[in-house]
Amino acid sequence: MIFFGKRGNVVDTLKTFWHVCPGCQLNVPFNVHFIYSYIHLYFIFGLITSHQYVETCPNCLRRQVVPKEALPLEIRQNRYANIMHQFGLAALAGLIILMVLINAVK
Questions:
Q1: What is the pTM of this model?
Q2: 102-to-28, 89, 94, 97 alpha-carbon distances in Å
Q3: Average model confidence (pLDDT) for the chain?
Q4: How many CB atoms within 10 Å of residue 72?
Q5: Are strands 4-20 and 63-66 parallel, antiparallel or unpaired?
Q6: Of 53, 56, 57, nearest to 25 (Cα)?
Q7: Fewest CB within 10 angstroms: 16, 47, 75, 79, which?
Q8: How many helices (H) and strands (E) does the chain have?
Q9: Residue pLDDT, tens place only, 14-45
Q10: Residue ranges in 26-82 assigned as alpha helix (H)
């Protein structure tokens, strides 16, 4: 039986930026979250299908999508997704190719 599906995850980047919220009109520190969805095989081997950065106001809980170019370099360069969610299917394909090559040599 093959288990596959699609899931999502929200990761807090632990970075905050102060600016005025368009909803509550207060100068507050916005929390930045990395939201991604991925497909998986056996809940281990995954591949990210979509991702976005979202700011959340701690006062009114209003969320807005932030373009990647508008974020500081320190946030854009970090990897926030689980490594197996990001490169799991590529690792599985590499293992299958390696097993086929080892059996071909024998």
A1: 0.75
A2: 58, 20, 12, 9
A3: 86
A4: 10
A5: unpaired
A6: 57
A7: 79
A8: 2, 4
A9: 777 888 888 888 899 888 888 999 988 887 88
A10: 73-77
